[in-house]
Amino acid sequence: MGVCDIDDYPWLNEEKQFLKDVMAKDKCVLGICLGAQLMSEALGGVVRKNKYKEVGWFPVSLTPLAWDHPIFKGIDATFEALHWHGDTFSIPEGAIHIASSEGCANQAFLYGEKVLGLQFHLETTEDSLKQIMEGSPEDMEDEGPFVQKKEVILEKAKQRLEGLRHNLYKLMDRLKEMCK
């Protein structure tokens, strides 16, 4: 599903309004993939098809603005993450562009000190990856430089899930501190 799929999922409009209201109240918000896209749009950004679909494990690089930001303390400047998207968001006015990848320039933004949008997936577990793969098998058959086949995704997951979890816990601890 995508941000623009209002006809199929009319509740997306309500979700965008909810996010807009919550972010205006200086609440702590973390959006991942579709959540980050909804947040971007709620903040005045634009969501559109990305030049490339990203499906699989690819490096994410923090921007120089993120290197010294407290939320990324202890996280490598470049790390592997799971990607599963064909759309991208613009960085909303007033937000900081904090991460990119070779296949998608806008991988993350920070708006104020309490709103974090991530295009990539740090929350992935073995079970959630299995569910994504079962729910969208056609995504792994697409052609493109940033689409991996099922076997590659599963093999890389064995090597990367622990590091992913490590980065997620660090990020969540920092976000929790910032949201006090």
Please write the string of helix (H) and strand (E) elements: HEHEHEEEEHH
Text of the CATH class: Alpha Beta
What portion of the residues fall into strands of 2 or more residues? 25-35%
| CA-CA gap between termini | 33 Å
- Main-sheet strand order equals 1-6-5-4-2-3
CATH topology: Rossmann fold
- Class from secondary-structure proportions: alpha+beta
The helix count comes to 5
Average pLDDT, rounded to a whole number, is: 94
Stretches where pLDDT falls below 50 for ≥5 residues?
A: none
Organism: Dissulfuribacter thermophilus
Protein name: Glutamine amidotransferase class-I
Keywords: Coiled coil, Glutamine amidotransferase, Transferase
Domain Glutamine amidotransferase: 12-127
Characterise this structure.
With about 180 residues, this protein is of the alpha+beta class. The chain has one domain: Class I glutamine amidotransferase (GATase) domain (Rossmann fold, 3-Layer(aba) Sandwich). Helices cover about 35% and strands about 25% of the residues. The protein contains five helices and six strands; from the N terminus they run αβαβαββββαα. The chain has a six-stranded mixed beta sheet with strand order 1-6-5-4-2-3. A hairpin with a 7-residue loop joins strand 4 (about 95-100) and strand 5. It is globular and about 45 Å long. The termini are far apart. The model has no long low-confidence stretch (mean pLDDT about 95). Pfam families: GATase (PF00117).
